[in-house]
Amino acid sequence: MVRASTPLMMKTELILVGKTVNKHFVACINDYVERIGHYMPFTLTTIPELKNTKALSEEQQKEREGELILARLQPADTVVLLDEHGLELRSIEFAQYMERKQATARRLVFIIGGPYGFSPAVYQRANEKLSLSVMTFSHQMVRLIFTEQLYRACTIIKGEPYHHE
Length: 165
Fold this sequence. Notes:
- Helices cover about 40% and strands about 20% of the residues.
- By secondary structure, it is of the alpha/beta class.
- The chain has a five-stranded parallel beta sheet.
- Helix 1 (about 25-35) links the parallel strand 1 and strand 2 (about 40-45).
């Protein structure tokens, strides 16, 4: 069970490919990023969108985005891809997952890829994959959903009343 006294001190980062364009999503994401920061060191990193992509195939785009993602990672990072084929967790289970990572990871990096997903090299580098739902969400919406769930996990771990069963 989740313990209320566990501090979340591992460094956590969320890497996004391309900026969030919807101003309402940006405002909500920024709000959750600020809230998460009260519980643990948290960074949101945006990798700029590729330029002149009309001449590139989907695979070429994934390869180039993959190179930019891999350049941001450190050898000891625990890398978790947000992927439709990943493990599905309820919110309480995700909080427990975060507690387990606290004991084993110095830096936990979650990644939301571009519109075509991840390159084979990024999949190879990843330690795990998580899915937010069996439903499909836009990449823009996934950013908001994930930051809210990470904040929710922090409050569950601390035993705060944000989450209701």
